[in-house]
Design a protein that fits this description.
Layout: E1 8-13, H1 17-32, E2 36-37, E3 47-52, H2 59-76, E4 81-86, H3 87-92, H4 94-99, E5 105-107, H5 115-125, E6 129-131, E7 152-156, E8 158-159, H6 170-174, E9 178-179, H7 182-194, E10 199-203, H8 219-227, E11 235-239, H9 248-256, E12 263-265, H10 273-279, H11 285-298, E13 303-310, H12 317-330, E14 334-339, H13 357-380, E15 386-391, H14 399-402, E16 404-408, E17 414-418, E18 429-433, E19 436-437, E20 442-444, E21 450-452, H15 455-469
Helix pairs in contact: 8-9, 12-13
């Protein structure tokens, strides 16, 4: 490619946590093929990969805008390559190369393992390679991975989704649900723990439907319980479940398995039964609130979060008030709220009763104000509690100025705490008392009660030292994600909003 040393790569990820996890696989594939990650301060990488999302508003315009910015750079750098993958690539296929002929590779959600081969083929043949598989070629977890965290990891248990929500295009792009065998999942988790990982997040488009492909309706609760017997695994989370499949055996497994964290993300979407029906959601308000009531009874300190869409076609003021009612009743710790906007290829985009933008905006602001009030009230209940906080990397943007560190409580609340005298590393666990609550974080301003150095902290230290010794492969991380929380803070749950 006319340069010295190994070729560099840069992956730009958009959308949901499934895309974040896929990007870790893409990084692993490229590094196995001899590429190294481009340093943050570099002018440009030899290979730039866009892992796209088809759910976010104006996703296509943003992609072509970004591709346009790279066109002159590519002209000035012979040998530079650009690849586009992910859900938008799966949907638009040949359109991408027609609109941006300087793109070298287009690949889909089912064949991410082909990226290095397609890049090489494009280089040799001097023409764009567009290869979109219609079904999964290899389960992503069989591919090499470059994880963004030394102490926390995503573990994919299924891909695809069998639901047909009218606002969501994900099933069309990710395919029908395919489940991994439980033994393969547990073997991956055990291997991760052996490397120093102490927190895992089980990942699926509809994570608690796990087992439908295996013929076992209780497979997910069994998997949670099996995680409880893995020595060294301290925290287990999962995302995103669907109320339809959220059964009593899952609640029991959460309550009775000590390392399954007291935290649940349960997408509501709407509190109105007519709107839920129009969305093709298979539960109603009473069923949703019943699940919340059971979870609170079994796990009193659980923090609950949700997704809500405001302004779905046909939504009346009464429908919206039903959503507000559920929010008041459920008392979510936080909510990812979205203003409905048309997504090409979804049934909802063609529905009558599209709501004027100004009406949607006004309702959205009312909902956000209510949820902010509830989030703050729920956080204030944490003041005075003593919590074990897993130290995170990149979660506290002001930590340097405030002389604090940051981490996640068991219920996944973000905690900023006073930096202790002794050395503390990401992955270690500190015990602190909460002294102040804001709507979106907690503060522990007093001295740290205890510091527990962990194998996860050792793993972070070892990895950081290795990165420092090899500058070309320096860890850039995904600073807005830190410990893989169920929902990456950088980009609210795009396809998670469809579950």
């Amino acid at each position: 490619m006319g340069i010295e040393g190994p070729k560099t790569y840069d992956i730009r990820t958009y959308g949901c946590q499934m895309n974040v996890h896929d990007s870790e696989r893409l990084s692993g594939l490229l590094e196995e093929a001899g590429y190294v990650r481009a340093p943050k301060e570099a002018d440009g990488a030899d290979v730039v990969v866009f892992n796209t999302c088809a759910v976010r508003e104006n996703a296509d315009n943003k992609l072509y805008g970004n591709l346009g910015h790279l066109a002159p750079m590519k002209t000035a750098r012979p040998g530079m390559q650009i690849a586009v993958g992910g859900c938008l690539a799966q949907k638009d296929r040949d359109t991408i190369v027609k609109r941006a002929p300087w793109v070298d590779v287009v690949f889909g959600t089912h064949n991410i393992g082909k990226l290095p081969v397609l890049l090489e083929r494009a280089r040799v043949q001097q023409e764009a390679q567009v290869e979109i598989a219609e079904s999964l070629e290899a389960f992503p977890s069989t591919l090499p991975t470059r994880r963004e965290s030394a102490y926390a990891a995503w573990v994919s248990i299924s891909v695809g989704c069998n639901n047909t929500c009218t606002f969501c295009i994900v099933p069309a792009l990710r395919g029908k649900e395919e489940d991994r065998r439980p033994g393969d999942i547990l073997a991956e988790i055990e291997a991760l723990v052996a490397e120093g990982v102490s927190e895992i997040t089980l990942l699926g488009q509809n994570v608690n439907a796990y087992g439908s492909d295996l013929g076992d309706r209780e497979a997910f609760s069994k998997l949670l319980r099996a995680c409880g017997s893995i020595d060294g695994l301290e925290r287990v989370r999962f995302t995103s479940p669907h109320p339809r499949d959220f059964t009593d055996d899952v609640i029991a497994a959460m309550a009775e398995t000590p390392n399954v964290m007291p935290q649940l993300h349960m997408p509501l979407q709407s509190g109105s039964d007519p709107i839920l029906k129009a969305m093709r959601r298979s539960y109603r308000q009473e069923r949703f609130l019943g699940i919340i009531e059971k979870v609170r009874a079994a796990i009193p300190h659980a923090a609950l979060s949700t997704d809500i869409i405001v302004g779905f076609p046909g939504e009346t003021e009464e429908d919206f008030e039903q959503t507000m009612h559920v929010v008041r009743e459920a008392r979510f710790a936080n909510a990812f709220t979205f203003q409905y906007s048309k997504r090409p290829g979804t049934p909802a985009a063609e529905m009558d009763g599209q709501i004027p933008k100004e009406v949607v905006q006004a309702r959205y602001e009312r909902l956000v104000a209510l949820q902010e009030e509830i989030s703050w009230d729920e956080n204030k209940k944490q003041v005075g509690r003593t919590l074990d906080v897993m130290v995170a990397e990149g979660e506290g943007r002001k930590d340097g100025a405030t002389h604090r560190l940051s981490g996640r409580a068991p219920d996944n609340r973000l905690v900023h705490f006073t930096k202790p005298d002794e050395d503390v590393r990401p992955g270690d666990v500190v015990t602190v008392e909460i002294t102040y609550a804001a709507p979106h974080h907690l503060l522990a301003e007093g001295p740290t009660t205890a510091v527990r150095r962990t194998r996860a902290g050792d793993a972070w230290e070892k990895r950081t030292a290795a990165a420092a010794a090899k500058p070309a492969g320096v860890l850039l991380g995904l600073p807005q994600i830190g410990v893989p929380a169920p929902l990456p803070a950088a980009d609210a749950p795009a396809c998670g909003a469809g579950h």
